[in-house]
Specification:
Chain A has 460 residues and is of the alpha+beta class. Chain A is 33% helix and 22% strand. Chain A folds into three domains: 3-90, Uridine Diphospho-n-acetylenolpyruvylglucosamine Reductase, domain 2 (2-Layer Sandwich), CATH 3.30.43.10; 91-220, Uridine Diphospho-n-acetylenolpyruvylglucosamine Reductase, domain 3 (2-Layer Sandwich); 224-411, 3-Layer(aba) Sandwich (Vanillyl-alcohol Oxidase, Chain A, domain 3), CATH 3.40.462.10. In chain A, helix 1 runs antiparallel to helix 3 (48-61). By secondary structure, chain B is an alpha/beta fold. Chain B has three domains: 7-103, no CATH class; 107-250, Rossmann fold (3-Layer(aba) Sandwich); 259-381, 3-Layer(aba) Sandwich (Rossmann fold), CATH 3.40.50. Helix content of chain B is 43%, strand content 8%. Chain B contains 17 helices and nine strands. In chain B, the strands form two sheets. Chain B has a five-stranded parallel sheet with strand order 1-3-2-4-5. In chain B, strands 7-6-8-9 form a four-stranded parallel sheet, sandwiched between helices. In chain B, helix 13 (284-292) links the parallel strand 6 (267-270) and strand 7. In chain C, helix 8 links the parallel strand 2 (110-113) and strand 3. Chain C has helices at 8-12, 18-21, 30-41, 47-51, 58-61, 68-79, 86-95, 119-123, 154-171, 181-193, 205-215, 243-251, 271-277, 279-295, 306-318, 326-333; strands at 103-104, 110-113, 136-138, 175-178, 201-204, 225-230, 254-256, 300-303, 322-325. Chain C has three domains: 8-79, no CATH class; 95-209, Rossmann fold (3-Layer(aba) Sandwich), CATH 3.40.50; 217-333, Rossmann fold, CATH 3.40.50. In chain C, the strands form two sheets. Chain C has a five-stranded mixed sheet. In chain C, strands 7-6-8-9 form a four-stranded parallel sheet, sandwiched between helices. Classes of the chains: A alpha+beta (460), B alpha/beta (384), C alpha/beta (337). Chain A binds chain B through residues 15-16, 18, 20-23, 25-27, 31, 42, 44, 70-72, 88, 90-91, 112-115, 117-118, 121-122, 135-137, 322-323, 325-326, 328-329, 332-336, 388-390, and chain B through 8-15, 17-19, 21-24, 33-37, 42, 45-46, 49, 54-56, 58, 60-61, 64, 79-82, 326.
Chain lengths: 460, 384, 337
């Protein structure tokens, strides 16, 4: 064992250190389509102190350090582009504190969405967090780090908007508290009314620091939940429909999907509208208001509420939706990837056309999946293609289609979500130079040796 | 390799690692080792890499494959249509490794001992039936049921106690049962899960021939592992028998009062053995027995039934101990979980679970707070 | 091309105008009723073409053997008057599209048809159907397609139904017992109205159950419950079969409550209305219907059509009435549930 290996093994314990080919193979790749690159070491730390020591070691030895949650971004964000250490955070998964009345929870950096959900259901049945539809093993910290979205995003914005405090380990090994927790025992604000420093870390994919604790806001959990699906063949009217729905302020979440299969989904755009209530009356009132809000489209025959088959409801209502992962095996090939730009809702028709065009051009199975962010403030439009992992040609066609999506999204005024390295480069080329200048200053100061998830957000 | 056309279809989404409500990681190897490589998804990706020549069969690869407890949590929770085959895929990979002769030493030793002695304990066959001495259990002639014990119940001290408890109960209930004694052979379930398909077939065919010669129609097994292989694997080799786990026989007898019982003032939690529960869907029979005992308070662990956490002994690990050891070994996690329920007794229905959890209670120094008892032992204590 | 058999003169000489006079959704007197139907027959515009909610009931109200509702449907299609939003219509047309995913049991001359409602395969287990099972047919290839009259789209029926008939013909079946009410209506009522020849005998599962229950008399334990019956739209196409509900209830000891919305005055489940016209009509109809069940002391609500059940079953249950399909009720009576 070399010196670095020995030191790492000393820090985390031999059982949680590996420089073996098996881990090197696995941690070199994610489920998406980005080319693999092997780490030299994989560690699974248990404490902030261990992470501090690892960061110090990495800084001293100038070796890359890549934090990883569940590695499910699909865009290669945890692939160690320049080797070094991959740090699997999932052993740090304690739920540290729930403040019920102030509605927030503090969790360790490797805590999964699933674990928090189960914990709240058991101990705080009146509280919930904004659950994304990534698999349950996805971590809270990584999800906010990539500005993920979840069930409450239509109401409260990106999941990262719901942060109420961070603890970060810097490249230097120092621990840094962000938000009210920097001067108070309570983690209720991520910045306001003082300078909000979370932006130094969020969206950086670990290139400026490693999140070791995160506090996220919790929200009232109503006793009942239901889903309605409004369908239309007029994609050009979808933005207006979403505008009406968001005006009601009664909807939990709005997802829109369009896909050619199964037959029940062919030809239409489906606006899945989730509603909640503590009583039948509350739920029914909200249902009525949402239906009324779209009444003019029903009258003009441009859209209507489909009867949701009883078997479909549980699939839609479960959190996270397992069916999202199932999309990977549509071609019996275990793969899917999507490019999910954050874009104006008014671009829905263009996005909807583009995905069909690309699916035809590259002969791919597809699903267009949008999630409304805020009251129609923006949306994530996921251009999702399913591929067969055993079919290199199909994988290549998918890569090409996704690349075209990136170009399209940028052209349409969108911003890349969980940008691949290529997209990061495209973004930085297009970005206002002064903005880029600030990014450069931040990166150089927080990561002077360029060891933090290098290859990502490298401002040249 | 069989299933080679499936391994690429894993998306590694990780649902396989959890319980259905995400309370905790529920894959015993992942829970212990904490590298993704030790999760079902990790195995799928590594098997593919190995078949493609991207990695080699190394000590670590062997550890990754042979530490799998074949507990079928992944089968239960994987979201894909091939979920049923996950454990089969891991076993097929083991078969390839066995065929190549590159396997962990304890696996090699286990298989060798079965081959030579017919049991992993290096004991003579003549010792097999010794547990029954001093009981009313007779040798099989033409009784209604063959009571099949298996290696653990025949040779392991803990297992023998359970065999005696079950045997006595069945006789007391007036059932017509007989054991094979020194004629009994290994059932082969673990041989199969450890990937020695040839030896398994040899054992199974030998057993089937013996059962047939003796005119066996119905079998009661002590061990869920034997129950599993008799039920699921033997029919394909022309071995069709009516197979029961002993709890399935006892449950109606106790519920109907055929075995009268006195009350017991205990709080008990029941640990589902994977080969009775997830592999064969029998969650109720043992619980019915326990609930029929007056005064018993049956409490469930956070993870039970389909979501039960394996003791770590399955898939041959009981014998090879590749998964055991350390604070996060599954059996130790499981007894801590049992302790959290406030129960004083962990009820089991499998001699392998009994021994695994017994040892864990000792290492965790919980002897004075937690007892591991087979369902049959609990019933025995309640006999009038 | 198949043409609707419609006799304008029958309307002109109609003494009652029942088709529209009895309509629960239009307020029309005899004179207007006759005038409007004649206008529609002659291809002229009429408010009826705009306001009809597609409940099918006029097919039953007309006792002169004409087909008022089919006619309305034809004319609406010709004039491009949509009943439902286009997306809803497309969706329904898509789900009825043959996919090659049909399933056949051990098909004999006498066979059960499930249309394309897969749940029936589970429902027909047990003594009630052991006479025919496992002779069954399921899939879009055997789907009656009648539902498209809700969507003012008879051309799709005319296109698909003959192929469906052909699929049956290829199987050589002589007698088909339809487990879905609407399918029976298709072959026994709609097909003849369009001159589509049906090469087998259509049997409604009501009749089948009635006869079967008589055979199983010894197994029946009277249920002694009070139940309301939810009559589906499709039942208007086979009003001659409606009496079997009461007959069967008598056999199994169910007190079929007298209520306002029964028989000719039955109310639609509202499922189609919600899709086509939005919240108010559907909820008004559903509320009146369920209130009526509650008011008259129903303990159970018996469904004939699974779609009705999925449309109001949950709401019925919330009001303290047990929703149950007629098949399950019969199973209950012979101790199979």
């Amino acid at each position: 064992m070399d010196d670095i290996a020995h030191s790492l093994a000393m820090i985390v314990g031999e059982a949680y250190f590996s420089n073996q080919p098996e881990e090197a193979y696995f941690y070199a790749r994610d489920p998406g389509l980005m080319p693999p690159h092997k780490p030299d070491y994989v560690v699974v730390p248990k404490s902030v102190e261990e992470i501090q020591e690892i960061a110090r070691l990495a800084s001293r030895e100038k070796i890359p350090l890549v934090p990883m949650g569940a590695g499910l971004a699909l865009t290669g964000l945890t692939i160690p582009l320049k080797g070094g250490i991959v740090m699997d955070m999932k052993r740090m998964n304690r739920i540290l504190k729930v403040n019920e009345k102030a509605r927030h929870v503090i969790v360790e950096g490797g805590t999964s969405q699933g674990l928090l959900k189960a914990y709240l259901e058991k101990n705080y049945p009146r509280l919930r967090h904004s659950m994304p539809d990534s698999p349950a093993t996805a971590t809270i910290a990584a999800n906010v780090m990539i500005h993920g979205q979840g069930r409450l995003t239509q109401q409260y914005g990106f999941n990262s908007d719901m942060i109420s405090g961070l603890e970060v380990v810097l490249a230097s090994g120092e621990v840094c508290k962000i938000g009210s927790c920097s001067m108070s025992p309570d983690w209720f604000s991520k910045g306001a009314p003082m300078p909000d420093l979370t932006g130094l870390f969020l969206g950086w994919f670990g290139a400026t620091g490693i999140i070791t604790k995160v506090a996220v806001k919790l929200y009232p959990k109503k006793k009942m939940r239901d889903v309605e699906i409004f369908i239309t063949d007029r994609e050009d009217l979808v933005p207006d429909m979403v505008y009406e729905l968001t005006h009601t302020e009664m909807v939990e979440d709005i997802n829109i999907f369009a896909q050619p299969k199964p037959m029940i989904f062919k030809d239409n755009h489906h606006i899945a509208i989730f509603i909640t209530g503590d009583t039948d009356e509350e739920l029914e009132f909200k249902r009525k208001m949402t239906w009324y809000s779209l009444d003019r489209f029903i009258k003009s025959k441009d859209g209507g509420f489909m009867g949701v088959p009883p078997v479909m409801k549980p699939t839609l209502l479960e959190m996270p939706q397992r069916s999202v992962s199932r999309f990977a095996d549509v071609k019996k090939g275990g793969g899917f990837e999507y490019s999910g730009p954050i874009i104006m809702v008014e671009k829905y028709p263009e996005c909807a056309h583009k995905i069909v065009e690309l699916a035809e051009k590259y002969d791919l199975g597809y699903s267009g999946m949008a999630r409304i962010i805020g009251r129609s403030h923006a949306m994530m439009y996921g251009f999702a293609f399913t591929f067969n992992r055993a079919d290199p040609d199909m994988m290549d066609r998918t890569r090409k289609a996704l690349h075209e999506v990136s170009e399209f999204a940028l052209e349409a005024g969108g911003v890349f979500w969980k940008a691949t390295v290529d997209e990061q480069k495209m973004a930085m080329e297009k970005m206002d130079p002064n903005t880029l200048g600030i990014m450069k200053m931040i990166k150089e100061n927080l990561d002077p040796n360029g060891i933090m998830n290098p290859g990502n957000w490298e401002v040249i | 390799m069989k299933y080679a056309d499936i391994v690429h279809r894993c998306f590694r989404c990780g649902y396989c690692k959890f319980t259905s409500d995400y309370t905790d990681f529920n894959c015993p190897t992942y829970r212990k080792f904490r590298f993704e490589t030790y999760s079902p998804g990790g195995r799928m990706w590594l098997i593919r890499a190995w078949l493609n020549g991207e990695i080699k069969n190394s000590d670590r690869f062997q550890e990754i494959l042979f530490s799998c407890a074949t507990c079928a949590n992944c089968v239960e929770h994987c979201v894909f249509t091939f979920s049923e085959d996950l454990v089969n895929i891991f076993i097929s990979a083991r078969e390839e490794m066995v065929n190549d002769g590159i396997i962990p030493p304890p696996v090699r030793d286990y298989l060798k001992n079965i081959n030579i002695n017919g049991n992993p304990y290096k004991e003579p066959a003549s010792e097999r039936g010794k547990w029954a001495e001093g009981t009313l259990v007779e040798t099989y002639k033409d009784q209604e049921y063959l009571f099949y014990i298996g290696c653990v119940g025949s040779y392991d001290e803990r297992g023998k106690k359970i065999a005696r408890a079950v045997g006595n109960l069945l006789v007391k209930a007036g059932l017509s049962i007989g054991i094979l004694g020194d004629k009994e052979n290994c059932d082969g379930n673990e041989v199969r899960t450890l990937g020695e398909a040839g030896l398994f077939q040899f054992l199974a065919e030998k057993n089937i021939a013996l059962f047939r010669d003796l005119g066996v129609k119905k079998i009661i097994t002590l061990d869920p592992h034997a129950f599993n292989t008799f039920k699921k694997d033997y029919p394909a080799l022309d071995g069709e028998f009516e197979v029961y786990h002993y709890t399935q026989i006892l449950a109606p007898l106790i519920q109907s009062g055929k075995i009268p019982l006195k009350g017991l003032n205990d709080k008990i939690t029941y640990h589902d053995p994977c080969y009775l529960g997830r592999h064969n869907g029998e969650y109720n029979a043992p619980r019915k027995i326990l609930k029929a005992i007056p005064g018993i308070e049956l409490v469930e662990m956070d993870r039970s039934r389909e979501n039960a956490f394996c003791c770590g002994g399955g898939g041959g690990n009981f014998f090879t101990d590749i998964l055991g050891g350390g604070e996060d070994s599954p059996s130790r996690i499981r007894v801590r979980e049992a302790l959290d329920t406030g129960a004083g007794i962990i009820a089991v229905a499998c001699p392998q679970c009994a021994k695994m959890l017994d040892d864990a209670v000792k290492i965790e120094q919980l002897d004075d707070r937690l007892k591991v008892m087979d369902v049959a032992e609990i019933v025995t204590n309640c006999l009038l | 091309m198949y043409e609707l058999k419609f006799d304008e003169n029958l309307c002109k000489t109609c003494p009652t105008g029942d088709c529209l006079v009895k309509c629960q959704y239009l307020d029309v007197e005899k004179k207007t009723a006759v005038e409007e139907m004649v206008k529609i027959g002659q291809g002229e515009d009429s408010f009826v073409l705009q306001d009809c909610v597609t409940c099918y009931a006029c097919e039953e109200y007309c006792k002169r053997g004409n087909h008022p509702f089919y006619l309305i449907t034809e004319r609406r299609e010709e004039k491009g008057i949509l009943t439902s939003p286009r997306a809803i219509t497309k969706q329904w047309i898509n789900i009825g599209e043959p996919q090659g995913k049909y399933r056949l049991g051990d098909v004999k001359e006498r066979v059960l048809s499930f249309g394309f409602m897969p749940e029936f395969l589970q429902w027909v287990k047990g003594k009630l159907f052991e006479d025919v099972m496992p002779s069954y047919i399921f899939g879009q290839e055997f789907f009656c397609n009648v539902v498209y009259i809700h969507f003012a789209n008879t051309s799709i029926i005319k296109e698909r139904l003959p192929k469906v008939v052909d699929n049956f013909r290829k199987l050589g079946v002589k007698e088909v017992i339809f487990v879905h009410d609407e399918c029976y209506g298709a072959f026994a009522h709609l097909a003849p109205a369009y001159g589509i020849e049906v090469p087998f005998k259509s049997v409604h599962y009501f009749e089948y159950l009635y006869n079967r229950l008589k055979e199983l008399k010894d197994f029946i334990k009277p249920l002694n419950i009070r139940a309301a019956y939810q009559r589906p739209c499709s039942s208007r196409l086979s009003s001659d079969q409606h009496h079997f509900v009461a007959d069967i209830m008598e056999l199994i000891g169910v007190d079929l409550i007298e209520r306002k919305y029964q028989g000719e005055n039955a109310l639609c489940c509202g499922g189609i209305y919600a899709m086509a016209f939005g919240y108010d009509l559907a909820h008004d109809v559903q509320k009146r219907n369920i209130d009526d069940m509650v008011e008259h002391g129903a303990q159970y609500c018996i469904f004939n059509c699974p779609a009705c059940q999925s449309s109001i079953g949950a709401e019925v249950a919330k009001r303290g009435i047990k929703p149950i399909h007629l098949i399950h009720l019969c199973k209950m009576a012979i101790g199979e549930m």
